[in-house]
Amino acid sequence: MTTRRALVVGVAALVVGLAIYLVARRGTELHALLGIGGGTVALPGFVRDNLPDALWQFAFCVAVLAIWQDAPRSAWRALPLAIGLGAELAQATGVVPGTFDLLDLGAMAIASWAAAIVMTPRQPETACDTRSSTATA
Predict the structure, then answer these.
(1) What is the pLDDT of residues 49-98, one digit of tens each?
(2) What secondary structure letter does DSSP report for 38?
(3) What pTM was estimated for this model as a whole?
(4) Which of 15, 50, 59, 97 has the highest CB neighbour count under 10 A?
(5) DSSP states of 84-128 as a string?
(6) By C-alpha distance, which of 121, 89, 124, 93 is closest to 1?
(7) Which residues are bridge partners to 26 per DSSP?
(8) Distance between the two ends of the chain, CA-based, in angstroms?
(9) Can you give the C-alpha Rg of the chain in angstroms?
């Protein structure tokens, strides 16, 4: 995936996550900052509570992998995963404000994995395949 396309996908994930957060939740610091009420759309719990975190984690991973695509892959793949999961785990200990959720942790891990798959370079297909599709006797 090209860097430009990856960043568009990442921004789209952020926008969808933000939209879910704004219309399906209420009383958050973001709502207070924007001076809006929110919570006008009823969505299933996972979509309302966990999907925004997964989408934000996906966007973070895609952005890191797109921007630093020439860097050693393993180190850069681990960084956004460690930051995302670390922030969620820090909520469990009270270091970071928020509510720890095991489903958030799982959704964020899956989102990081999905981003790594999306951003893994594909081998170009060749015009000539040396393998024969028919067996010879």
Answers:
(1) 999 999 999 999 999 888 887 776 667 668 899 999 999 999 999 999 98
(2) B
(3) 0.81
(4) 59
(5) HHHHHHHHHHTSSSS---HHHHHHHHHHHHHHHHHHSPPPPPPS-
(6) 121
(7) 38
(8) 42
(9) 20
**Which of 87, 48, 80, 63 lies closest to 12 in space, CA to CA?**
63
Angstrom distance (rounded) from CA 137 to CA 127: 26
58 close to 114: Cβ distance less than 8 angstroms: yes
Tens of pLDDT, residue by residue over 64-76, are 888 887 776 667 6
Give counts: helices (H), strands (E), the chain. Answer: 6, 0
β-strand partners of 38 = 26
How far is residue 61's CA from residue 80's CA, in Å, rounded to a whole number?
Answer: 6
- Residue 26 carries which DSSP code? B
Q: Is 46 helix (H, G, I), strand (E, B) or coil?
A: helix
Q: Which two tokens stand for residue 64?
A: 């890191």
DSSP 131: S
Tokens of 95: 């270091």
